[in-house]
Predict the structure.
Amino acid sequence: MRYKRRREAAGPVTSFNFTPLIDVIFTLTIFYMLVTQFSSAELVPLRLPEPQDSRAVAAKIPDRVVVNCRLGDPAEGGGVLYSLGPNIPESIAVISDRLAAMKAQQPELKLLIRADKRLAYADVRVIMRTAGELGIELLNVAAHMSEAD
Amino acid sequence: MTAIDAGGPGWWPAGTRAIAAASDETVHFLPPRRQFRKPRPTPIALVLAPMVDMSFTFLIFFVATTRWELPEGVMTSQMPRWTGQGASAVPLPETPVIVRLSQKPGEADEYAIRIDRFTEAPTSFGELAAFLDKLQTTPGFDENTPVVIVASDEVRWDHVVSCWNAALRAECKNIAFAQP
């Protein structure tokens, strides 16, 4: 009897309903986990060419080396920055030496050029020419795929 | 048989029931019913706090790291063999289709397309793809006819890739680059 009186004095119990909140969180988490593609450190973020009705295909190229060509920060002098994979930007001569060493170890070395779409052709042609001189025959250029893909 | 309430003061214990047979007067006494109390269910509470913490952590991580952009693909081409500095380009077949790409004077992002030995001058890469596609139906040309892209140095890389893509759209199988 005493117990009953005490409960009545406490009033109605209010509680927050967490169920829909957890549902939504789980749904969003699973969605993001499914759509996320973890990019490699060697794929430096840059603005790739976006050709209309692109014929670029998703391909995993074995034994390939990535050369990134991007625009430098205007605050730091701008220019074109060339980097081999995840390395820091280097000069064309250094990159050429590194590629030559890699080519000596891996004769079937393939090159993937990732160049910013705002660059001039001459800036990218330097890398193409270097690759040609080293005897790297297969040239791969990164571009955005079409939305339908 | 008839149940007779045997309650009340007497020599039998309280709650004892007596059952009397209808045929005779024999009374069978049954022991009092044991009163079982339903055991109270043990309260099981799921501790949701760590799960919610982890879910929020994952959610914030994915929201913060996800970048919405088109997937990246690759366009592949065979490079000519170079034998050193100043070497001449590989000898080309007799009738390649040479596509010249240049920047329009005074307009930084504009380009001009010209095709050697042809009067057609496509104004866009879509038109170039259509021209190359139509060219393959002409006698003497097919999908293996080399298409050589000659781009001037100042043309944007985006346009060069679009030109290459136009040749790929026309199902050309032999695409090469040449120096301007």
